[in-house]
Write a structure and sequence with these properties.
34% of the residues are buried. The strands form two sheets. Strands 1-4 form a two-stranded antiparallel ribbon. The chain has a two-stranded antiparallel ribbon with strand order 2-3. The protein has a domain of 262 residues. It is globular. 70% of the residues lie in helices and 2% in strands. It is mostly helical and 382 residues long.
């Protein structure tokens, strides 16, 4: 009769308690950011007079919304690179696939308001097409579009990852293959006959869910939706990396052969996090397109995928918050430099990446941690 309580007591004493998702300070900070992004920014944009210094203009709302989409991609990169040790140079592909799926729906929402007053998108009328291609059939349904945003990129990622991980392709070879896949898809989308708008892609969007996109309230709804998605993905990522699944990912990153020796097959874990990472990028792309107003094959360029890796490296790999911070730092600097000195932007990006690689291997977050640790030690010494 005493065996059960004894067993329970032993389990309680021997097994470590599962880690908390976040500390009290962490939850307070998370709540503060949630309030700022979902309440304070909309209030300052919509209800504060534009003449006031507290007013946030539509330009900055659109800029922050765009960067938050990039931050989701950086967070996805951290899961696959920072925690699993797999450097992908092809995440721009999944971002663009989600963007194109949303763009197809937005093109159908134009209706008869296009330049040619046709039910077909303008570029199809220009090319003398008479009917919609087969892959456009369900593009007038918002629900079908949401399904496409989720299923299509996840399926591409799953199939590619299945064969790549099963063949034990890793390291620089995996990075080169992902970049080649993205580049090949970009060339495919440049072709007019594929039905994706060729060089110009999709633009001149009018409505979403029959609601005009140009209104301030619609833009703010998209902004808040992007903020909630970023915050939600952060919580999901935090939960995953602290779970047994996340610990296995980090073990695969540090010593994959030992993981196999312990009886675990790395393939399902790598495939699962790879597919989730691709899905996060696709959702980011779908949120990006209605806010920016355009999607074209250049989103799949190798440079864009490399930039995602740079955001993660600058902020700090393996920290979750670091890549988000890196996306804001790099893209904030890009926005400022391209307006003030556009010819220096690429030089700045290259210098930034080299500096981080040589002097800040743990990124900005790593530097901040060192500073706080140093101050704490000094305080303890005193």
């Amino acid at each position: 009769m005493q065996t059960q309580p004894l067993t329970s007591s032993l389990k309680k004493n021997l097994l470590p308690e599962p880690p908390k998702l976040m500390s009290r300070t962490g939850w307070s900070t998370f709540l503060a950011f949630t309030i700022v992004l979902t309440a304070v920014v909309p209030f300052l944009n919509i209800w504060v007079d534009s003449a006031s210094f507290l007013h946030i203009s539509d330009f900055y709302v659109a800029l922050i919304g765009k960067i938050m989409c990039y931050a989701i991609c950086a967070l996805a990169m951290d899961l696959i690179w920072g925690y699993t040790g797999i450097l992908s140079l092809g995440h721009g592909l999944f971002f663009a696939l989600g963007g194109y799926a949303m763009g197809m729906y937005l093109m159908r929402q134009i209706g008869l308001d296009g330049n040619y007053k046709s039910a077909l998108p303008d570029f199809m009328v220009f090319l003398d097409w008479k009917t919609l291609p087969w892959h456009w059939v369900l593009s007038d349904s918002f629900f079908a579009t949401l399904c496409t945003i989720i299923i299509a990129p996840a399926l591409v990622a799953f199939v590619f990852g299945f064969f790549a991980f099963r063949s034990r392709i890793k390291g620089v070879y995996f990075s080169i293959i992902t970049q080649a896949l993205t580049f090949a898809t970009m060339l495919l989308f440049f072709r007019n006959e594929t039905g994706f708008g060729g060089n110009n892609g999709f633009t001149d969007f009018k409505r979403i869910l029959d609601i005009p996109l140009a209104t301030q309230s619609t833009r703010m709804v998209l902004f808040v939706a992007t903020a909630l998605t970023l915050l939600g993905f952060y919580l999901l990522s935090k939960f995953l990396v602290q779970s047994k699944f996340g610990r296995l990912l980090q073990a695969i990153r540090d010593a994959e052969s030992r993981v196999m020796f312990c009886g675990y097959s790395p393939v399902p874990y790598k495939l699962a996090i790879w597919t989730l990472s691709a899905l996060m990028c696709a959702i980011a792309g779908a949120l990006y397109v209605p806010q920016v107003g355009i999607i074209n094959p250049s989103e799949m360029s190798p440079a864009n995928s490399i930039e995602i890796a740079i955001w993660a490296a600058v902020g700090g790999r393996g920290t979750l918050i670091g890549p988000i911070l890196g996306a804001f730092i790099v893209n904030g600097a890009k926005s400022w430099l391209t307006m003030t000195a556009p010819e220096f932007w690429l030089y700045f990006l290259g210098a930034l990446f080299i500096s981080v690689t040589l002097f800040l291997p743990n990124g900005v977050v790593g530097l901040l941690q060192k500073i706080f640790k140093h101050k704490k030690n000094q305080g303890g010494a005193v």
